[in-house]
Amino acid sequence: MDYQAIIDKYYPQDDDLRRLLMKHSRQVADRCLLLAGRHPELQLDVAFLKEAAMLHDIGIRWCHAPGIFCQGDEHYIRHGLIGGRLLREEGYVRHARVCERHTGTGITREQIVCQQLPLPVEGEYEPETLEEKLVCYADKFFSKSKPDRVLTVEQAAQSLAKFGQEGVAKFMRWAEMFE
């Protein structure tokens, strides 16, 4: 797969949004590859991890998040759903699943209903495979709004606390597995 061609297709201009997307995606990909290298016993698909990490946020341009140069109309929580649709259209179902499942530590149907999130209730938004979990995990260390900051495990866990302790506990289980 040529992930760069997909990025070029959807982000053809060298602008602030593309530069931010590329920086963030490289940070996530580098962390995924570092952690995969530390854990050969997990038998992670390293090539897929790199591609999926580079594409996990491909859907942000259609969302409204002016603080990170996104001038679209969609709610930001839909960026994974949008990215998933784009990658499915390109024929990359495994990569699409990473897009759809990397927000927070995954989004449950209960959360969609209780919080009235603008996502289809019938969707699958929780990471299942080790690769999906690792991209989701690695993503939590880097913020597009503060692209030069790298969080510690503790800081990343703390940033998830506002969404509930269930996500923090899941993140800490991942930390035990991947760190």
Give a structural overview.
Helices cover 56% and strands 2% of the residues. With 179 residues, it is mainly alpha-helical. A hairpin with a 4-residue loop joins strand 1 and strand 2 (70-71).
- From the N-terminal CA to the C-terminal CA, the straight-line distance is 28 Å
Task: Please state the CA-atom Rg, rounded to the nearest Å.
Answer: 15 Å
Largest sheet: 2 strands, antiparallel
The structural class is: mainly alpha
| Number of DSSP-assigned strands | 2
- Largest sheet, order of strands side by side? 1-2
Q: List low-pLDDT spans.
A: none
What is the count of DSSP helices, taking H or I runs of 4+ residues? 9
Helix and strand pattern: HHHEEHHHHHH
Instruction: Kindly state the percentage of residues in helix.
Output: 55-70%
Helix/strand layout:
Elements: H1 3-10, H2 16-38, H3 46-55, E1 64-65, E2 70-71, H4 79-90, H5 93-101, H6 109-114, H7 130-139, H8 153-160, H9 165-178
Antiparallel strand pairs: 1-2
Helix pairs in contact: 1-3, 2-3, 2-7, 3-5, 3-7, 4-5, 8-9
